């Protein structure tokens, strides 16, 4: 193992591979900052550029774009509330409030350090346990995935900003939207109303940019007061105090592991990892009410997890030849183009590609940290832009981002519609995060459930044949019931103390 890792660094430290790693993470960072582009289109564009390159160099370049985009996607989430990619949606929950409080520099520094730590720790884990984690990924079937998605949905109450009922209503809307389009199993049209623009469903990017970026634009337009941050307070200090570093240490340690494990599971990925990390950190917190208002842990947890998940996604890709997401599917195609067949024999047939790419990810994370920390004061100057110009820029970025994905003008109308919906949710204090989480998990949960039912000929007993499934279902039940029981217990104690005071 040690000889293989040293060989990987020998491959990664060649001048040409260092250059490709740097270009990849630089391009990925820029792409991640721009809402709508995403790593998939960037990697697809770079496939023709890889002709004539060695397989190791080609994959080092494209892998750099992938994790660089996740690293850079936090910038627009924090500064504009416009997630650059889907994996950084949860970053906006506490990152954007910090920027509004004049702590944009500190928020970007926390995101950069957390991303570096999560990416580095997960690369070390990737080096040590890649073959073993591949075996774990194989054990997950439809029932395990259904139980995992259900566990995520039962945590919706943790994303509520007060009323749990409003959070459940918001989640229900997300589940409804997730069913729009052609049913993959029967080919039936669902809730398309005869509109061909809805046959493929509604893209996640439309919903994310509408509910977060455009809803913020609506709020800025309707509230006519000038609230653009100006002066030094707009950026704030980049320096992190010892207490703040201590607060970050726990989430970084926990969610590097959680993000890596979720990244290994095909279909989970950075988006689900970031949401589950945010939810779990909020539940562990002694002051959950501070989340969504600029909590350091609420920013560090998803940023650590989404970067850790990108490294974990390479485990099934390289060891099994199974892409876990759209991005890794494009990477799989790129590997085949350069003549490499991912799978169990890759370690024997192409050790330079396998270990070289893993070692380059460690170097790439160092490049990202060196690139991003000095740029924080420059990036944070976005907050100096006058409100009127900032509104126009956000609208243009959102429209271009959505149109560039599909070249469909109907999607622009959908974007505006979700922007209005996001503003109404804010006005009546319905939380948007449960909507997003339910939309992400709803389709995957439905597909896993129907696959399990097909395999078992309609028998629900299939969900009790796997110890992993049973364990996840038990945890889901407890996560749904325990908060209610604890809430009733606290109310009972409060009532008793009030009665004792009255008697006294």
Automatic annotation (TrEMBL):
Alphabetical UniProt keywords: Membrane, Transmembrane, Transmembrane helix
InterPro entries referenced in this protein's UniProt entry, alphabetically: DUF112_TM
Superkingdom of this protein's organism: Bacteria
Transmembrane segments: 18-37, 49-72, 108-130, 136-155, 204-222, 257-279, 353-376, 388-405, 468-488
UniProt keyword annotation of Iron present: no
Keyword Translocase: no
Chain segments annotated as coiled-coil in the UniProt record: none
Residue ranges of every copy of the DUF112 domain listed in the record: 18-437
Pfam families (alphabetical): TctA
PANTHER family: TRICARBOXYLIC TRANSPORT PROTEIN (PTHR35342:SF5)
Protein name: Putative tricarboxylic transport membrane protein
Organism of derivation: Rossellomorea aquimaris
């Amino acid at each position: 193992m040690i000889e293989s890792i040293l060989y990987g660094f020998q491959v990664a430290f060649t001048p040409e591979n260092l250059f490709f790693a740097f270009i990849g993470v630089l391009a990925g960072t820029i792409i991640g900052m721009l809402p709508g582009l995403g790593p998939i289109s960037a990697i697809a564009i770079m496939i023709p550029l890889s002709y004539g390159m060695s397989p190791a160099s080609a994959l080092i370049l494209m892998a750099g774009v992938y994790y660089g985009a996740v690293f850079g996607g936090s910038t627009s989430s924090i500064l504009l509330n416009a997630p650059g990619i889907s994996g950084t949606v949860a970053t906006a929950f506490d990152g954007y409030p910090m920027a509004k409080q004049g702590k944009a520099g500190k928020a970007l520094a926390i995101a950069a350090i957390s991303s570096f730590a999560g990416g580095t720790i997960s690369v070390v884990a990737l080096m040590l346990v890649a073959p073993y984690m591949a075996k774990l990924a194989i054990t997950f079937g439809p029932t395990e995935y259904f139980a995992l998605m259900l566990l995520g949905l039962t945590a919706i109450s943790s994303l509520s900003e007060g009323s749990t009922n409003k959070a459940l209503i918001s989640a229900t809307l997300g589940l409804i939207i997730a069913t729009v389009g052609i049913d993959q199993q029967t080919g039936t049209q669902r809730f398309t109303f005869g509109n061909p623009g809805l046959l493929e469903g509604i893209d996640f990017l439309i919903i994310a940019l509408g509910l977060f970026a455009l809803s913020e634009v609506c709020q800025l337009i309707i509230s006519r007061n000038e609230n653009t941050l100006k002066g030094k307070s707009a950026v704030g200090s980049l320096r992190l105090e010892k207490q703040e570093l201590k607060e970050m240490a726990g989430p970084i340690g926990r969610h590097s592991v959680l993000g890596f494990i979720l990244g290994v599971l095909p279909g989970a990925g950075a988006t689900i990892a970031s949401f589950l990390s945010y939810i779990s950190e909020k539940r562990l917190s002694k002051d959950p009410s501070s989340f969504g208002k600029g909590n350091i842990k609420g920013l560090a947890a998803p940023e650590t997890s989404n970067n850790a998940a990108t490294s974990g996604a390479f485990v099934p890709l390289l060891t099994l030849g199974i892409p876990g997401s759209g991005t890794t599917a494009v990477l799989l195609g790129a590997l085949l183009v350069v003549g490499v067949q991912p799978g169990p024999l890759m370690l024997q047939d192409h050790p330079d590609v396998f270990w070289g790419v893993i070692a380059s990810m460690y170097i790439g994370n160092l490049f990202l940290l060196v690139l991003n920390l000095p740029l924080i004061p420059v990036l944070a100057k976005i907050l100096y832009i006058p409100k009127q110009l900032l509104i126009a820029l956000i609208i243009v970025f959102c429209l271009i981002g959505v149109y560039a994905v599909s070249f469909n003008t109907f999607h622009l109308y959908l974007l505006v519609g979700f922007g209005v919906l996001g503003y109404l949710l804010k006005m009546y204090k319905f939380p948007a995060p449960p909507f997003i989480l339910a939309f992400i998990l709803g389709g995957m949960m439905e597909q896993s459930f129907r696959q399990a039912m097909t395999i078992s000929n309609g028998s629900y007993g299939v969900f009790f044949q796997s110890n992993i499934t049973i364990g996840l279902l038990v945890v889901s039940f407890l996560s749904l019931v325990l908060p209610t029981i604890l809430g009733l217990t606290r109310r009972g104690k409060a009532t008793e103390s009030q009665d004792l005071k009255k008697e006294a």
